[in-house]
Every structure is written in C-alpha cells, then in structure tokens.
Amino acid sequence: MEFRHLGSSGLVVSEISYGNWITHGSQVEEESAVACVHAALDEGVTTFDTADVYAGGRAEEVLGRALKGQRRDGLEIFSKVFWPTGESRNDRGLSRKHIVRGVEDSLRRLGTDYLDLYQAHRFDHGTPLEETLRAFDDLVRQGKVLYIGVSEWRAEEIERALAIADALGLQRPVSNQPQYNMLWRVIESEVVPASERGGLGQIVWSPIAQGVLTGKYPPGQAPPAGSRGTDEKSGARFIKRFLDDQELLTRVQGLSGLAAEAGLTQAQLAVAWVLQNPNVSSAIVGASRPEQVRDNVQAAGVRLDAGLLARIDELLGDSVQRDPALTQSPEAQR
C-alpha cells in the first residue's frame, strides 16, 4: 500500500480507501461485509469511509463492529452528515443542531470516540455557511473530530467556505469527496484548481464507475445476474446513464487491451487512472466479496505513462463527461 497526505494537511491516508456505501447493512450480509473489511486491512488499507445515511445508519454500525479490536490510532475513519436521518425538519442539513446530533450518533454507531474526518455530505443552501463552519470548528476543538471536509461541493462553494474560515479563524476543510473516474471528469476544470489553491485533496468515489469500467456490461447484453446493474437497491439507478449508452459500453470494452498491456485488470486500470491526478489523495473502493478488495488494492503505487493515458483519452473520446455544471452528480443521495 502507498500513502498520501490528505490535501495540505498533516493527515496521511492510504491511496486506496475502503467505503461501505450500498454494501454494508443492505446489499451483503454482515459476515461478508466484515470479511471485506478484514481483507482491506490485510492489504494495508487504513482509511475507511462511511456516512450516517448509508443503510439508515446500519453501515456505520457494521463498519464499527468490523473494525473492533483494531488499533484505533492506526486507522483513519471518515463519516458524513447532511441527508435526512429522521422525520423531523431538523433531522437533515448542516445546521448546528443536526451536525451536533449527527456526530454523536455516528460516534455511537461506529464505536469510537472521535472521527478522523467529518464531511459535509452536500452543500446546504438553507443554512448560513458560517453556522455550519462554526459547528464543525467546535467539534474539532472538543476532540470529537480531527479534520473537516466536504463532499460534492462546487468550486465556488469551496472557495466561500475557505474565505469564511480564514476570516473567522475557523477550521478549514482539508478535503472534498466527489465522483471521479475515466467517464466522469467534471471536477477537473474548476473543482480541482480551486482545491489546489485552497489546500484540499480529493477523496474520490466510484473510480470504476459502479463497475462499468470493469467491462462486465457488454453492449447489447443484459447486465450479469447479481450485479449492480440488476439490483435497484445496490445501485442500478446510479449507473443507468452509462448502461443506456451503447457506444460508451463499446468503448469501455476496448480498455481491456490497454489494461493487459499495463499488466492490470480493467478495474485496477480504472483505480490507478484516478490516482494519477496529483490532487487525488485517495480512491474509495467498495466490495461485496473479499477478492474484489484484493484485486482493486493492487492499483496502489501504479504509475501509468503519458502514452497510455493519451490512448485512454483517445479511446473514450466524447463518451467522457466534463461539463463543470454537473459537478454535483445525479447520484444525489449517495
């Protein structure tokens, strides 16, 4: 495993993070979920990402049980707050009330007394940004949170947060968690430059485009049984735009030859590709089977030459989404 600093902060994270969106508490049984976490640990992964909204809180609980007994100081545990976690009007958003309640609930479910990184899961247009940043700052001062980050924020939102934090002497965000992969590159034109100027690193999710970049969805064929393309609970609605594009699926099949030349599987190539971006601190992978974890982590430390990167761009062509207006991806409630 290789390691990188999270943005310009002093926190070091594993190049590959393990995330449990979709899988834990919903798609796979707990025994399988725990096996995947232990496989990640065995492969040197130290960074684990979850959120209070995943599986209605069950994902945090499963992750907490899976990590029980591990040396806490050797792990980086991340969670998020924003999406509704109850029926009350205050059970959502980035108000002080929801953030304070949210972190207490996440700590309880995870079985830990602090989070290494607490992330604003989306930007809250209904709460003053100063209120949100002050609440996060208080959690840092209390020792319940060590660093703060954001997820799927636009460049202008990141810049506003940094300006307010600097003006008021508050904790600055050190990271952003966007979707990013060979097919979805909308962060490159605005979010990445803003993050580089502000010292934020990207913790990217969906580096293999929910499995599309593995090549297991050939054009003109039904999705394989048991895959995310067939199970609405496990992500079919999140990759529909890819599966409906037959030209894109045809181009993705062409990645198999490029991956073979590099001595990689298609999944490893996809994960390694996002890690070539110097603003990426870590790539989040998920899994329903331990062997998927072991395969994906082999992308750590891989360096792709410029010629191969250019051939990937040429192959994918106009199938790549680059429009910065789509920074906040359609997977609204991820």
TrEMBL record:
<dbReference type="InterPro" id="IPR005399">
    <property type="entry name" value="K_chnl_volt-dep_bsu_KCNAB-rel"/>
</dbReference>
<dbReference type="GO" id="GO:0016491">
    <property type="term" value="F:oxidoreductase activity"/>
</dbReference>
<dbReference type="GO" id="GO:0005829">
    <property type="term" value="C:cytosol"/>
</dbReference>
<dbReference type="Pfam" id="PF00248">
    <property type="entry name" value="Aldo_ket_red"/>
</dbReference>
<protein>
    <submittedName>
        <fullName>Aldo/keto reductase</fullName>
    </submittedName>
</protein>
<comment type="similarity">
    <text>Belongs to the shaker potassium channel beta subunit family.</text>
</comment>
<dbReference type="InterPro" id="IPR036812">
    <property type="entry name" value="NAD(P)_OxRdtase_dom_sf"/>
</dbReference>
<feature type="domain" description="NADP-dependent oxidoreductase">
    <location>
        <begin position="15"/>
        <end position="315"/>
    </location>
</feature>
<dbReference type="InterPro" id="IPR023210">
    <property type="entry name" value="NADP_OxRdtase_dom"/>
</dbReference>
<keyword id="KW-0521">NADP</keyword>
<keyword id="KW-0560">Oxidoreductase</keyword>
